[in-house]
Amino acid sequence: GDSVTQTEGLVTVTEGLPVKLNCTYQTTYLTIAFFWYVQYLNEAPQVLLRSSTDNKRTEHQGFHATLHKSSSSFHLQKSSAQLSDSALYYCALFSGGSNAKLTFGKGTKLSVKS
Amino acid sequence: DAGVTQTPRHEVAEKGQTIILKCEPVSGHNDLFWYRQTKIQGLELLSYFRSKSLMEDGGAFKDRFKAEMLNSSFSTLKIQPTEPKDSAVYLCASSLDWGVSYEQYFGPGTRLTVL
């Protein structure tokens, strides 16, 4: 089945510095889309980024990610972290067809310090 | 428009009980998801309905977890029998057309505690 591996636990960065959250995957199905979800404290998760196109950079709210099928990766990056970026981040992939699945990594907690 | 509604917001159950969680999706949405969230495992998909048809039945969750779409505007998640390890936040989300928009609207969740 599908699996997603992301930077586990807590990542702490200083405000203004770059941040990178790693995500790699394995899939045996026809994978349609890849996602980064963000969940702020006491809020529900929401989609931050998504991509279906190999080697195409996707951007939103200052974050960017590029799907690289050759290395099975979809890392999340930001050039300058903000205090408001502190949240829980999930990488996920969606496989379609008759056996549709949405598979998540275990989540990475990002803490941005001043 | 009302968002996704989940009831109850909090539930406490004894081990072995049957509990039913409820979800009303955004009006007109065709796709519905049930998730479980814990600090250890993170976010896990339990069920996924596309136009009321079950597309994903949760694999390892199948034996005690059953989600149903009773109609296009109401879904339930039954856990039978409950175990302490089921203590988690259960989230429901809906989408107009997930395979096209990839937009999901989440409900506030039900926090379940199993003693």
Q: What is the structure about, briefly put?
A:
Chain A is mainly beta. Chain A has no helices and 12 strands.
Structure characterization notes:
The complex is a heterodimer of chains A (114) and B (115). Chain A is mainly β. In chain A, 0% of the residues lie in helices and 54% in strands. Chain A contains no helices and 12 strands. Chain A has strands at 3-6, 9-14, 19-21, 23-26, 31-39, 46-51, 57-60, 63-66, 76-78, 87-95, 101-104, 108-113. In chain A, the strands form 3 sheets. In chain A, strands 2, 5, 6, 10, 11 and 12 form a 6-stranded mixed beta sheet that branches. Chain A is globular and about 45 Å long. The model of chain A has no long low-confidence stretch (mean pLDDT 92). Chain B has 115 residues and is mainly beta. In chain B, 3% of the residues lie in helices and 54% in strands. Chain A binds chain B through residues 1, 32-33, 35, 37, 44-47, 50, 90, 92, 94, 96, 99-107, and chain B through 33, 41-45, 48, 50, 55-56, 59, 91, 93, 99, 102-104, 106-109.
